Amino acid sequence: MAILENDSTIVDAILTDEGRRRLSEGIFEIAKFSLHDDEIVYSKAQQASADSKFQTTPIFEATTDNVKALKYKLLTLTPDASTTSGEYTHLNVTRLVTQKGTQNGTPQATGNNAGYYVIISTEATYNDHYQGASSVDVPSGFLPGYSKIEISNKEDTAIKVDHGINDDGADSPLSYQDALPIELEETQFRVKLDHRLGRLATPDGGELKPIFIDDDYIATYMITTGMGDFTEVISKSSQAGSPILGARGPRLKLYVFAAPNINTSSDGVWDALGRDITSFFTNGTTTAKAIDAAMIVEGETTNVNITIPLRFVKNA
């Protein structure tokens, strides 16, 4: 939904594809709704003139794209005894764990692939560059996604996400040695990924089944803290153990492998959705076919929300 004018209450409501499907079947009923502040520019609140504050903030029209719409929901929080002031001074942030050593993270790629996790999508591609007498070391941020067995339950192949209070204790009473309050701790995560391109492996080398795949091929997975090696508790012995400086919730670990649609010698999907990148590899077949995608992680309890860039590649 969206309010389209600043001086009157006009509500523009657009049903999603799922909403239209339910309406056509006569089973559409609004049972709950949530409020979000994606469009609010909070720096406007610091301006002196009332006319230059929220009243003149641009408003987007409603969108049916479930990947983009309504990421940041509004919360009602009741601080517990761990907040000495009786109020929360900080909310959760979300960070990728990319530093090795104390954080035990998985670095992202560098150079022309900076910011991406590169998923090697066929075994032939992996063998051409990283096996045999003329092989080179697998670069940082390159993951063996051609096999759910190779990608699963290994510390250096998991994409890791932390959440918590990103404060060193100077302004927040919740330091890295404290437990994150229950109502700020995520125990359920929604993970969204294009089902044509990538899938999530289970820690034992199987495949996690999505709870839903929409008509844009976006698969939604639900991961909880009770699902074995998908999550882990971060040690409170060192602040350097996480990119989150203060109190932390459970770490999420994701194992991404290439879907059968692209783990193939056929170039059909690659040519339709991707492009060729010359001089991509340093040995063997140097040109790669590449498809860029995004994996989205959302928390069920708070505003844990992060978009993780992925680049699926194979030999051209």
Give the SSE string: EEHEEHEHEEEEEEEEHEEE
Number of DSSP helical runs: 4
User: What is the general shape?
Assistant: globular
Structural class: mainly beta
Poorly predicted residue ranges: none
**Rounded radius of gyration (Å):** 22 Å
Taken together, the total number of domains comes to: 2
The strand count comes to 16
Q: Main sheet? A: 8 strands, mixed
Secondary structure: elements and pairs:
Blueprint: E1 2-3, E2 11-12, H1 17-24, E3 93-96, E4 117-120, H2 123-130, E5 142-143, H3 148-151, E6 159-164, E7 188-194, E8 198-200, E9 212-213, E10 218-224, E11 231-232, E12 251-254, E13 256-258, H4 268-273, E14 275-277, E15 288-299, E16 305-315
Parallel strand pairs: 4-5, 4-16
Antiparallel strand pairs: 1-2, 3-6, 6-12, 7-10, 7-15, 8-13, 9-10, 11-12, 14-15, 15-16
Plain-language structure description:
The chain is mainly beta. The chain folds into two domains: 2-56, no CATH class; 93-315, no CATH class. It has four helices and 16 strands. The protein has helices spanning 17-24, 123-130, 148-151, 268-273, and strands at residues 2-3, 11-12, 93-96, 117-120, 142-143, 159-164, 188-194, 198-200, 212-213, 218-224, 231-232, 251-254, 256-258, 275-277, 288-299, 305-315. Strands 4, 5, 7, 9, 10, 14, 15 and 16 form an eight-stranded mixed beta sheet that branches. Strands 3-6-12-11 form a four-stranded antiparallel beta sheet, with no helix packed on it. A two-stranded antiparallel sheet has the order 1-2. The model has no long low-confidence stretch (mean pLDDT 86).
